Amino acid sequence: MKLHQYGYQGPETFEGGLIPGRVIELRRELCTVLCEQGEVQAVPRGALLHEAKPGQLPCVGDFVLLRFNQSGPSPIHGLLPRRTVFSRADFSGHIAGYAKTVLEQVVASNFDYVFILSSLNQDFNLNRIRRYLSQARQSDAEPVVLLTKADLCADWEGRLAELRAAMPGVAAVALSSRTGLNMEGLLPYLTPGRTLVFLGMSGVGKSSLLNALMGHDVMGTAAIREDDGRGRHTTTHRQLFMLPSGAMVIDTPGMRELGLIGGGEGVSTAFSDVEAVLRRGCRFSDCSHGNEPGCAVQAALESGELSCESWQAYLKLKREAAIMEDKSAFIHEKRERGKEIAQFSRRRKKEGGKP
Ligand SMILES: Nc1nc2c(ncn2[C@@H]2O[C@H](COP(=O)(O)OP(=O)(O)OP(=O)(O)O)[C@@H](O)[C@H]2O)c(=O)[nH]1
Ligand SMILES: [Mg+2]
Asked: Residues lining ligand 1, judged by CB closer than 6 Å?
């Protein structure tokens, strides 16, 4: 399999004998990279591991430069620029695959479509879809909302219409990977060389859809819990699969928490109804949309043009994005302060003083 079939468009050789490849799987620090030698195991070389900025360590979907090593893991020397990237804030002190404190966890890169999966079971929730959408919109790739498990919902058409009314202009398909209903709605996205990334809560059927598109089981799936309908976090790593159609899918573990990085802009675009009202403008340019006279939002709420639910959801997401940005700034500052203290102690030691 040639690398260009994996969406690569750059040169085939680089200075110093380095070769390009695409990361198709990541388990701890070990990457599986597809390159001209086939699938090889690779690890970031020491300098990359220690000096990389947050978000600059290899993730699934990345095009990397490596030095092929026949007798062991090949060292990865660097990343080629990412065309699209999907990140989330990470405050856990470690990042999938890397024992390193980071602020930004790159979930996937170099994809063309973000498939946001949401189940048509009792857990159907438009606001959650908006949250994923606002995050997906920051990546520059095209988001597509998939309402899964349509076989479990007698009125899937009604739900799809609700979604289309709430998020006009967003591509959406209601389907069932179990019965095959509306699976043909995905065909326009499954063209050779394109990469799709699957996002959504645990248990919505991401791996089941992947298996259906592959034509055989490549990922484990598990029944959701009977009592609360929650998923079991079955998929625990990220992996890229080549579909028979020539398109690729990055399956991800279900994500409970969406830490938005730079979420502000994405929030607005996910709420086109709110944005339309805000664009109209209020009498006062610094209107807080509380009870000032001439407030366009209040007028739209009163006339029913804007739903209260939509406005509340917008405010909530804006608040969360602001908190995330604050939190990132705080952790960044703390790390920088830590570095300064360490440098200061080292200097003192060198000078013979007490650390
Ligand atoms: N009825 C029905 N059940 C489905 C469908 N798709 C998936 N399921 C079931 O939903 C459950 C969860 O599916 P998974 O594919 O494991 O979900 P996931 O999104 O990969 O979950 P995580 O890996 O935990 O993030 C399994 O029991 C599937 O059989 C569908 O179209 N219809
Ligand atoms: Mg899964």
From this structure: 148-149, 151-152, 176-178, 200, 202-208, 221-224, 231-235, 253-254
